[in-house]
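hi! just following up on the protien thing from before. the input was this:
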Amino acid sequence: MRRPVARKLSVLAVSAAVVSVGAAAPPAAEKTAVEKVPVAVGYGGAVASVDADASAAGIEVLRKGGNAVDAAVATAAALGVTEPYSAGVGGGGYFVYYDAKSRTVRTIDGRETAPLSADSGLFVENGTAIPFAEAVSSGLSVGTPGTPATWQQALDKWGSRRLGTVLKPAERLARDGFTVDGTFREQTAANETRFRYFPDTAKLFLPGGRLPVVGSTFKNPDLARTYAELARKGVGALYRGDLADDIVDTVNHPPVDPGSGWKARPGDLTAKDLATYRTKSQAPTRTSYHGLGVYSMAPSSSGGTTVGEALNILENTDLSKASEVQYLHRYIEASRIAFADRGRWVGDPAFEDVPTKELLSQRYADSRECLIKDDAVLTSPVAPGDPRNPAACDARGTAAPTTYEGDSTTHLTVADKWGNVVSYTLTIEQTGGSGITVPGRGFILNNELTDFSFTPASPDVHDPNLPGPGKRPRSSMSPTIVLDRHDKPVVALGSPGGATIITTVLQSLTGFLDRGLPLVDAIAAPRASQRNQTTTELEPGLYNSPLRAKLEAIGHGFRLNPEIGAATGVQRLPNGKWLAAAEKVRRGGGSAMVVWSAS
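and the predicted 3d structure came back as:
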């Protein structure tokens, strides 16, 4: 049943403005600690990220007249300082931009690429896939970084400031330091063993041979110098020249402590791999959901197609009137089906014939939606359908299991006073990436190539996500912007979390658009994540609630996941106001800021 949502969205905007407490960033000159606030309302633009120093860097750029793109790059660079285990110039990501003047959405695919020498057996030795843990902390897992090229491309196309200008807050932060919090220490502790394999990593992140102390100041002068070099020479310095040579040498000859006993397999990254790396400017995915336009990343990310297909499956259900059990049941089943199709059909379109248009067609979604029953649960793994030849309720065929994806990623969302919006997800793959720091450069290299299938996910089904020369591994990153019928922003959001990114974005969108939750509460709501697996992951808020038993009575099975994702978002309010929202608790809470507070 279709229904108009315009009046409901206006109510959401008003209610959000009423319940939210505004928070503006302190002026850049102040050195006092910046408080983390999960929601802020005000004027002049907004930034939401996981970190207060990073959000403040974006606000500083907005306050000095920069636009949303300038601020997004500044925020991302600062996250490379304060969230070095999640993002940085050694990684990649996806940049989604709304241009207020043309009322259009555009994207940049800055995903890492495999070396040109890679083939489908990249992670196979003696006919067997190498152990995942051994692949992670190795040069073999490192893809050509795409983040610096993404920053330059975004600034060149849509920015108003030079790279050197927007890198200044992050350079200052790396040089002067930031205050260590519990999350940074915990993430360091979780990686302590493998960080000690690599002397340069241990020297930087285990100062004095010990874990960083909460409340202490952490400085990264090597990264400050790297940012200064990029500011002077441009990002080409990372793809050609001394810095590029350092990256190649580090990947191909991982600097391991001989006494650690760790076998860090070398990679085969070349100067040519770096010099020939290019971002891809491409059209976003678009899904119509109850009259709204939902825009996200097209392949090589599976985020846009999978979130979009699930929304299309839910299109004919009035989730606003469903009970909590009915809502969660339909959401879980739509996720299950969409992941079944993701596993079979989505890979790097430069190598694979990806039916993006067909996956996002309402006709195909309707043929899959009829698999969902109100009183029963589909058995995973569900077989994929054929989007080019939809057959109603077709559950035949062989399923492609969901492959592992690291969850150490970060997301930022930015809006400016002109109405431009950026939704940007960036990563170095799992927490701590490859664990390998480029000597003297202050950043960790990604382990993004482990997002490939090591061997075919199913011997009976073509796997679109096997490695290949220059190929981009499939991602789940889902930076999303929603527009109204007049092509003006309603909300933008995204999340880290590996494959759970897709379910986090889908649940947050339906919580906000359908269930009437203020954005900060839609982000904070306890999460469920079903990825075509035998059981659905639940956060404690759902796992320990009566809803779990009611869903189990239908046939659902569950397992506990302590924390899923760490989303941020912005919402356009009336009269030029913006609402920024971030996590209340996850990852220690996020940081929402506006240029000028409405309170």
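The chain has two domains: 1-30+282-401+462-564, 131-281+432-457.
The two ends are 39 Å apart (CA to CA).
cheers
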